[in-house]
Amino acid sequence: MINPVVIALIKKDNKFLMTKRVSFDSTDKMFFPFVWQFPGGGMQFAETPEESVKREMIEEIGCEIKIISLIPKIYTEVRNKWQGIFICFLCELKDKNSVIILNHEASEYNWFDLEEISKLKLMPKTYEMAEESEKIKI
């Protein structure tokens, strides 16, 4: 099964917002326990990628975002019989003073720069997404 997934790389003060994942489905059990990721999720029927990423951020971190740019690289990941096609956006919080309120999918959040991200236990492709986003001039 092929699934489109949207990812938000939310940047503030040259750091990225990342969440520590605790909610896994059966295809992701190999990454347990607790890995860092960028917030995001699956697109719903009839949504555009932009609508999806905005909805996912309200659901996962309780905040509205502003999309800065589409990251011009599409990532794919195959896990058993599941294939994710990852559409990534460089974003910022609509209100820089927003309070992050996590849903059940994550246990904590933090802000990390690229060097710090390289030292974390990550979901696949996470570091590559951050590295690619650094090429975008804001």
In short:
With 138 residues, the chain is of the alpha+beta class.
Any idea of the CATH class?
A: Alpha Beta
**Global outline:** globular
How far apart the termini lie comes to: 35 Å
* Helix-strand pattern: EEEEHEEEEHH
Total domain units: 1
Low-confidence stretches: none
Structural class: alpha+beta
**Helical percentage:** 10-25%
Question: How much of the residues is beta strand, in percent?
Answer: 35-45%
Tell me the Rg in angstroms.
14 Å
CATH superfamily: Nucleoside Triphosphate Pyrophosphohydrolase
What is the CATH T-level topology?
A: Nucleoside Triphosphate Pyrophosphohydrolase
Question: Can you name the CATH architecture?
Answer: Alpha-Beta Complex
Strand tally, please? 8
- Nearest-integer average pLDDT: 93
Task: Work out the helix count.
Answer: 3
Instruction: Report the sheet with the most strands, covering strand number, pairing sense and barrel closure.
Output: 8 strands, mixed
Write out key terms for the chains shown.
single chain, 138 residues, alpha+beta, Nucleoside Triphosphate Pyrophosphohydrolase, 8-stranded mixed β-sheet, 3 helices
Protein architecture, described:
The termini are far apart. Strands 1, 2, 3, 4, 5, 6, 7 and 8 form an 8-stranded mixed sheet that branches. The chain has helices at residues 49-61, 114-117, 126-133, and strands at residues 2-12, 15-21, 35-37, 40-42, 65-70, 75-79, 82-93, 106-112. The model has no long low-confidence stretch (mean pLDDT 93). The protein has 138 residues and is an alpha+beta fold. It has 3 helices and 8 strands. The longest helix has 13 residues, at 49-61. It has a single domain (2-133), classed as Nucleoside Triphosphate Pyrophosphohydrolase, CATH 3.90.79.
